[in-house]
User: Fold FAM20 C-terminal domain-containing protein from Notodromas monacha.
Amino acid sequence: MKDCIVSIMEKCSSEKTRTMTSVTNSESEVMAIRRRESRMELTEDGRIKPYVSFDGYFQLSGETPPTVDKNAMRRWIVFVVFILATIFLVSQLRTVGESGKVSLKTCEKFDFDEIWKLPEKWFQNDRLYLEKDQPQVMLTLEAMRCAKILAADVAKFGTQFKILLTLEGGQKALFKPMWYPVDHVITEGIIHGKDRHRGEIFALYLDLLFGFAKVPLVTGIFLDFNHLLSKGSERLRRTVFNNGSETCVIGECYYCKKEDAFCFPADKPVVEGALVLWLPEKIKLQHLRNPWARKYAKGKMAKWQYDPNFCQKNVLRREFFQGFGRAHEHPMFLDMMDTAVFDYLMLNGDRHTYELMALPAPKNGSILLLDNGKSFGNPGWNGYDVLAPLHQCCYLRKSTWIKLEPFVEHDLLLSKKLKQMSVADPVNPLLSEAQWEALDVRLKRLKDILEQSTSFAGHDNVSVLIFNTTREKLVFVRQFNPSAYVSSLPEDEIGVGNCVSVEKYPANTGFTVELCAGIVDKNLSLEAIAAEECGHAVDPRKLEKIVSIIGRPGLAGSSQNIFHVEVQLG
Assistant:
C-alpha cells in the first residue's frame, strides 16, 4: 500500500511537471521549475504545499523566488535576535526607576508580609537571632534588596543624615548613603568624618562570624534617589534643593545643614548606600552613656584616659551591676568587653552611647551594636585606646576568646573569611586592600594586648611609705614585697661567719625570688590592698595617695601607686 501511494504521488508530480513544462516558453523558467521539483509536496487532497525556500521567503510552489540581499537579511536576523534578548533580560530585571534598586526576577518569590515576621521570631532575650537562623538571615537580606519603596521620610534621631523608608510589606528601614569611596582615608581623627556606610555593612558580617547576634540586619544597596524622593513625605521634600547640576537633600538631624547637604548628580540619580532593617517592635531600647566615651571638645581628655583605676572606681561599682554577685560576671559588663573588641577590630572610636535591649533585673540590659558608621577611618591608626576597657578591667568572655583564637593563634586570616562571607553583597568589596591588611594586623596585636591585660590584672604595684611617729623613722613597704636571693656554694664554704668571695662568686651567678605577700582580691580598692599589704593595722581611710605612675598614658598598663600613712609603733 505504501509503495502504491508513493508511485501515485510520483506519477501526479511528473504529470504536473509535464503540464507546467509544456506551457513554459523560457529555458530559464524551465530550469527554475526543475530546481523546485525536489521540494514539492502534496497534501492529502492533492494540492501543492507551501514551503520556505533557502533564502527565507515564504513561497507557493510554482512561483519564482524573488531576488534576495543576503547581507541585509543577516542584519535583520541580528536585529531580531538583539530585540528578543533585550526583551528577555528586561523580563528578568526590575528597573531602577520601578523598584528603587536593581534586582533579579527572583524578587517575585518573596511574600514580604511573611518575611518581615522572621526577625520577630528570631529574637531571644538578649540576641537578635540564633546561629541556626543564619540561612534565614541571608534570605531576609535578599528580600531587603528586592522590596519596593512605598514611602520615605526624614529620620530626625541621631547626628548623621539618613532617610527612613517604608518597604513593601510595611517594613521600616534606614538608608545611609555613601559619602566616601571605598579607598578614602580620614586624616583628622578617629571620631571625625561622616558615616562610612561600608562600616555598617561590615559590622553585620563580623557579628555573624563571631556569633554576637547584636547587629541589626544591613545590606549594601543602590537606590534611585529621584524615585525615592517621589515617595517622600512633605517634610522630606521641603529639605530638597537644586545646586547647579546636582540635587541636594538636607534631611533633619543634629548635624544636618544646607552647607553640608547630601548631593547627587541630577542625571545620575542612582546612589550607593547601606539599608538597615528596623528592629523588631517588641525590643525596647534604653540608652546608657559609655563610661569610656571621649570628650568631643578639642584638647580635653576623659577621665579614663589618664586614670589607670578608672574601671575599679567608675565602672565595677556602678549601681546597675549591683545585686548580681560579682560585678565582673554581670552579662552587661561582659557585653562592654565584647563591644571593645568589636570596635577595636573595626577601628570605631565613636561609641559614646550604649544602646541596651531592656531586660528584667538583675540583668537590666544587653548591649546592641548599633551605629557602626564611624569605622575604618584610617588604616594607619592602631586603635589601642579603643581597647581601654580590656586594659583597665582585665576581663573577657571565654566564648569570645574561643571565637577569636583560631585567627589569633593560627594562620587563618580574618580578612579572607570576611571577604568570602560578604562576596554577595551589592557593594562588595566592603574595604580597600589597605583596610583589609590593617584589620589582620590589629587582630594579631590583640593577642599581645590581651596577654598584657591578663598579666596586669591584680598585679599593679601598691607601695606604702609608713612614717613611724614613735621612732621618727620612714618605712617602705611594697606589695609582693618578700624576696630572697638564691645561689649555690660548696658545702665547705657554707657556715656561720664565713665570708663569701664576691670575685669568686659574683652576684649574677644567683637570682632573686620575689614572694607574694598573700592573695589579693582584685575587687578591693587600692587603699584596701595597701592597708592589707603594709603589715600594720591601718585604717584604709587614713591612707593618702601620693602619686600613680603608669607605663602607658591613657591605659591601665603596669602602674606604681604610692600611698603614705603615719603609724605609732614601739
